[in-house]
Amino acid sequence: MKSYSVRCIFRWSTRADQKLKYLYEERITLWHARSLSQAIKKAEKEARKYIKGSDDEYIGLAQAYELFTPIDANGVEVFSLLRESNLKPKEYLDKLFDTGHERAT
């Protein structure tokens, strides 16, 4: 098995202290998997559990990276960033994560 980090993007339900229309979370978790696609499948399954029972939404972007050094962790969150925006989910993804200028393999 190899180690991967997977970034998933969520739209949170509206919060009282929010200044802009939407609140998004960029969240990175670590996974052991046989392939990049299997790591993404595991992360997306966990993403659906992460928001279960809330009004939050996994907005369907998962990007993975194979780590050079194996990590003994599975499903561990290692990074989270919340960002407010007036952009709708698709526009938000297109502007910040899927611009067409990425160098992904």
Topology pattern, helix = H, strand = E: EEHEEH
Beginning-to-end CA distance, first to last residue = 19 Å
Strand content: 35-45%
Q: What value does the average pLDDT take?
A: 95
What topology, given as strand order, has the largest sheet?
Answer: 3-1-2-4
- Count of domain modules: 1
Radius of gyration: 14 Å
Shape: globular
Description:
The protein is of the alpha+beta class and 105 residues long. The chain has one domain. It is built from two helices and four strands; from the N terminus they run E-E-H-E-E-H. The protein has helices spanning 36-51, 89-96; strands spanning 2-12, 22-33, 57-66, 76-85. The chain has a four-stranded antiparallel beta sheet with strand order 3-1-2-4, with helices on both faces. The longest helix is centred in the middle third of the chain and has 16 residues, at 36-51. The two termini are 19 Å apart.
